[in-house]
Amino acid sequence: PARNSSDAVAVIGLGRFGASLALELMAGGTEVLGIDPVESVVQDLNGKLTHVVRADATGEEVLRQLGVAEYGRVVVAIGSHLEASILTTSLLLRFGVKDIWAKAVSEAHGTILQQLGVPHVVFPERDMGRRVAHLVRGSMQDYV
Length: 144
Ligand code: ATP
Known about the structure:
17% strand, binds adenosine-5'-triphosphate
């Protein structure tokens, strides 16, 4: 039986980060709507997510037609396309989506997202770099 969309997650931007996140949610039994404007990206994930749609998420009408406004949880995984990240995120805030997770590629990008009112801003490269530093230090200690 289809779960209602409040349980499902919309993932906007299906690059390395967004695709990995979407597939992990699917593996854990969460329904996922994936959105990306690049045809090859959409084709690669076709059949692997509950729904995959080729669309530009910066369009208000596009997001409304896809029902994104009804999702309780939305991830904005657009990175280097700063303008697209900010436009999409501000539309989601305007729709009243409660649980927005947005990826930032720089401290400045993260600051803007936080100022807009995004509750969860994540910095994958920065945080993974820090994490790997601890792993590197740990593995060095294995050799001394
Ligand atoms: P990653 O590290 O996750 O691969 P990145 O930081 O290099 O990504 P981008 O390439 O900017 O980030 O964006 C990730 C994905 O977001 C891409 O697949 C891109 O097509 C998609 N994207 C870009 N603009 C939009 C948009 N307007 N609407 C939806 N998705 C978009």
